[in-house]
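Observation: inputs received (chain + flavin-adenine dinucleotide).
Thought: call the complex predictor directly.
Action: predict_structure
Action Input:
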Amino acid sequence: MQFEFSEEDVSFRKSARRWLLENVPTETPPHSGIEAREFALAWLRKRHAGGWSGISWPAEFGGRGLSFERQIIWHEEYVRSGAPTPLDSTFVALNHAGPTVMECGTEEQKTFHLPRILSGNSIWCQGFSEPGAGSDLAGIRTSGRIDGEDLVVNGQKIWTSFADIADYQELLIRTDPGSQRHKGLSWVICDMTLPGITVRPIKNLAGATHFAEVFYDNVRIPLSNVVGALHDGWNVAMTTLGFERRTAAITLQLMMEQKIESLATLFLSRGGDAACSSIGRDIAIARAEAAALRALTYRTLFKDPATAFDGSIVRLFFAELSQRIYGIAMEVLGPRNAEAEQDQEWVYSYLEAFSETIAGGTAEIQRNIIGERILGLPRGGAR
Ligand SMILES: Cc1cc2nc3c(=O)[nH]c(=O)nc-3n(C[C@H](O)[C@H](O)[C@H](O)COP(=O)(O)OP(=O)(O)OC[C@H]3O[C@@H](n4cnc5c(N)ncnc54)[C@H](O)[C@@H]3O)c2cc1C
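Observation:
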């Protein structure tokens, strides 16, 4: 898919490139903890102060109200500049919690939260998965009992990325006590500082602690924090997952092309033969697939939301390509080199990439969605 860019777009691109050249942080971002929070917020605040936060968000919420084309130009320039990965602790807020509040929230919720998100003043996390309710999201058991003007929340979430450093959570709970499956759920804004919340961080395979278990013990959340209608949380959650699977990872997908170029450089610098080796061929295939992924992503971006299931194709393709790229990197490095200090970011990314086919819906679940919702095969699985 090709975009037609106007003269104004071209001059927008130039000013984005100039600003990024002067302002991109040069330090390596911390992987987790409070340092990761401070780094991500400081970088977002800087973008906001420079007018580069929320390019396509409405001006009334602190954005610039510009077109999707401009948003894409920004993403492209962001990647070209070598800026830090956007998969940081501001990711949930900017890419799916904020957009969900914008689409389904009350005026009060929008006015309070959206400017705070864009200006780098709040970190959000996503409290959907539970032990026993991951792929089968409709199996959620964490409950919210209505008591006066509040919901009293009890239960547990798991795998909540950035829960240890978040201010707010998009929390999916069962609010209609007799309800089953997709019915009777609510999507609620949970203030992570409320009494009764305990966060227990979990260390991952790569040694980082960027997700956690979250426990709720009689946590009182005002009913005014429900986003969308009470008991209609499933539909709101599907809006969130639509953003998460469709548009949230554009920059990450564009970054993949850059990673492949770095991999090609690494391969050649270690004496690799680009023309006559299986690794050279694998890198060339990955390069072509990354270009295809970009085209697929752009095509999906401009589709009617009714066809949002296409996001599952993009998500799955991205996840599997990502794992393949870091697998090739390990082959290039070989077992001994992989221990060298200068190669540790490749090793870290390789270990992190295992989670790509789990987070945001596993590869099997994405395949179920593609089979059932796009290809029209008989229904079978969950989520
Ligand atoms: C890095 C990372 C970050 C995450 N961040 C968050 C977060 O911030 N917030 C949040 O809420 N969750 C988060 N998650 C959780 C993630 O959404 C779940 O792990 C995922 O949905 C899978 O659920 P599960 O772990 O319960 O596995 P299960 O659902 O128990 O699945 C186990 C296996 O069974 C397969 N399976 C299950 N059902 C089917 C089916 N119907 N058909 C075919 N195969 C099936 C799965 O594909 C998988 O291989 C994160 C996970 C990771 C890895």
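Thought: report the result.
Final Answer: The chain has three domains: 7-88, 124-232, 249-374. The pocket of flavin-adenine dinucleotide is lined by residues 125-129, 134-135, 159-161, 211, 355, 358-362, 364-365, 368, 381-382 (CB under 6 Å).
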